[in-house]
Amino acid sequence: MAETINMPKLGFDMAEGTLVRWVKKAGENVNKGEVLAEIETDKATVEVESSASGVVRKLLVDEGAVVPVNSPIAVVGSADEKIEEEVVPASQTSKVESQPAPVVTPLASAIPQKQIPVVEAIPVQVQSPVKASPLARKIARDSQVELANIRGSGPGGRIVRRDIESALAGGQTFAVRPSASPDVMPNVKLNDETLQLSKLRQAIARRMAESKTSIPHFYVTHEYKMDALMDLRAQFNKLLPESDKISLNDFIVKAVALTLGQFPNLNVSLNGNSVLRHGQINIGIAVSVEGGLLTIVSRQADQKPLRQISAEVKAMAARVREGKVKPDDIEGSTFSISNMGMYDVENFSAIINPPEAAIIAVGSARQIPVVEDGALKVGWRMKATISVDHRVSDGAEAARFMQALAANLEEPLRLVL
Fold it and tell me: Which of the listed residues 12, 94, 201, 382 has the most CB atoms within 10 Å of its CB?
């Protein structure tokens, strides 16, 4: 029996997606789980897998079409089935042009924000931004290619990977204009410029503003003794090849997941006057990308060994930075971690990622002078701050969670038993 493939809903606030490319064409065979198409959301380019095996009987939308979530995009069935659906051309679907986002007050959050300069309302001619896929931008940046010099072959003149590769294969060079030497102070007047926020930045601004203004946050900070964990990690990594080494964040993901098992009231989503208590513990991990960040999801992290968590997180982070992710990579988190330890950050607080009820912000593990048993010594310490929705929990419960997390971090053998 024929099965209709719909535009997936990736995130509770996603309303539509752009079908960038059909990977499978009409008449081709496809297996369940194979990539059928690539769609672009406000956050990323996502590979859509087929939910059925058979023949791609009909493609119901054209490349470049903007399609509402849960709308049919293709039909997969047997070769001899009669299919009734008609193809909807891109010209008949909603093609919504991005509107400049309003300037908002920067939020103190886990997301570094670049302040947009305020200018007077004087007409200024601004060059239109180059249309390019996230993957094409990454390849161009790595190869020092100026996108403005390349003609795009994708929908609407969009530059895609094959355009960059064709230019490089043809021996063409488009060097990016070098920035001025820091020692040279040219006597020129720099003009203000108005920059349009990217779709990803607009999505982040919208969600964080909604979260900060609608969710009553409160914060609890705890300092953890990390000596035993740092020693255990060093012992593990001596035995592992470079590609399999376990990061400090992998330990934190596992520790947080195990602790949530003791505090199910923090592994919830609020929906009006009811609370959805999640059966699975799916840890969202913030990953920095060009122009913002995305959250990848370690599913059932409390049930997985450290090496599996580490391998899965590495693979998902690589797909995110290449501009191609799978729906399961970024959807379905129940509690989030934002770790800025690699930036030498001592302590910070993060904004809750709705519809979740809490997020933990992790600083650097650092060696500092400490006093133990009346003696001064050097010890490893790390600070973390949990942000909690006050509608579902209170300070005492959050404090107990942070204390229980200490047991898992400071006695790290619990994470491997």
Answer: 382
- Displacement of CA 198 from its chain's centroid (Å): 15
Question: Kindly report the CA angle at 65 between 30 and 139, in degrees rounded to 5?
Answer: 75
Instruction: Please return the burial class of 376, using the count of CB atoms within 10 Å of its CB with bins 0-12, 13-18 and 19+.
Output: exposed
Does residue 20 carry a pLDDT above 50?
yes
Nearest to 349 by CA among 385, 398, 381, 383: 385
Closest CA to 320 of 283, 286, 282: 286
CA 294, CA 8: separation in Å to the nearest integer? 18
What whole-number distance in Å separates Cα of residue 201 and Cα of residue 45?
15
Residues 148, 137: contact at Cβ < 8 Å? no
Domains of the chain, CATH where assigned: 3-92 (2.40.50.100), 137-179 (4.10.320), 201-415 (3.30.559.10)
Note the pTM of the prediction, 2 decimals: 0.67
Q: Strands of 245-291 (E only): list them.
A: 268-271, 274-277, 283-289
pLDDT tens by residue, 267-283: 999 888 899 999 999 99
Report CA-CA distances (Å) from 340 to 41, 220, 291, 329, 353.
26, 17, 16, 21, 16
For 228, phi then psi, to 5°, come to -65, -40
In tens, the pLDDT along 159-203 reads 877 788 778 776 655 554 454 455 555 666 788 888 888 777 888
| Gap between the Cα atoms of 359 and 361, Å rounded | 7
Please identify every residue annotated as catalytic.
390
Contact of 380 with 373, CB cutoff 8 Å: no
Q: What is the DSSP letter of 43?
A: S
